[in-house]
Design a protein that fits this description.
Blueprint: H1 10-21, E1 31-32, H2 46-56, E2 60-62, H3 70-85, E3 93-95, E4 97-104, E5 107-114, H4 139-148, E6 152-155, H5 165-174, E7 179-183, H6 196-209, E8 212-215
Parallel strand pairs: 1-2, 2-3, 6-7, 7-8
Antiparallel strand pairs: 4-5, 5-6
Helix pairs in contact: 2-3, 5-6
Amino acid sequence: MVVNFARTSASTERLKQVFQDINAQSCPQLFNFHMHTIYSDGKLHPHVLMEQAISIGLKGLAITDHHSVGGYKVAKKWLEDWKWNHADGSVPELWSGVEINAKLLNVEVHILAYGFETDHPSIRPYLQGNTVTGHEYKAANVISAIHDAGGIAVLAHPVRYRQSHFDLIPQAAEYGIDGVEAFYAYKNPTPWKPCTAQTAEVEMLAAEYGLLKTCGTDTHGSSILRRL
C-alpha cells in the first residue's frame, strides 16, 4: 500500500490521528464523518446540521455531499460566525469532505475524501456536482487526486456493493486508499449503531492492510443521528 501524506496540513494530520482512535462507540455522539445536506441529496441545510452537531456535543465531523463542497463551505462560514459570538462555547472541528463515485473492480463504489484543499486543481473535477467519466472515474485516479489535494481517501460503506468487500478492500489498498468506513449501520436501526458482523469483517481487513477506520451515519434525512 502506498500512502501519500506529503501535502497534508496540520488539521489533516489531526484528523488522521482521530481516525486511528475511532471505535464502535465513536458515532454518532462524538464524531460523524458521513453526512449530506441540500447541496446533494440530503434534507438538512448546512446551518441546521451544524446546530445539531453543537447541540449533540460532537468533537469533530465532516459534511460529505456527493461531488460538492458547497454545503461544507456554507457550514464553515456559519461555524466561524458562531464561534465569534460564542467565545466560551464548545466547538466541534469541521473538516472538508466529499463523496466521489468511482470504478473499482468493474463496479461503482463511493470514495470519501477528507481534509483536502477544496480549491486544489486535482480535486476540482470531482466537485462539479456530477460523476466524472473516463480516466478520472477510475478509483486509482480518484485516490491519487485526493492525495494530491492533501486529503485522506476512505472507501465508503464497503459491504454495500455488488462486489464483495473481501475483494474491494484489498484492491483499494493496492491503489493507495488510506482507510475504510468500518463502522456503518447497514440496516438503518434506531438508535443508530454499526452492524456487528459487517464491522468485524471490515475491521479484520483494515488491520490486515494497515488501513484507518472511520464512522458515519450517512445522514440524508433531518437528523444527523441516523441515515434516513
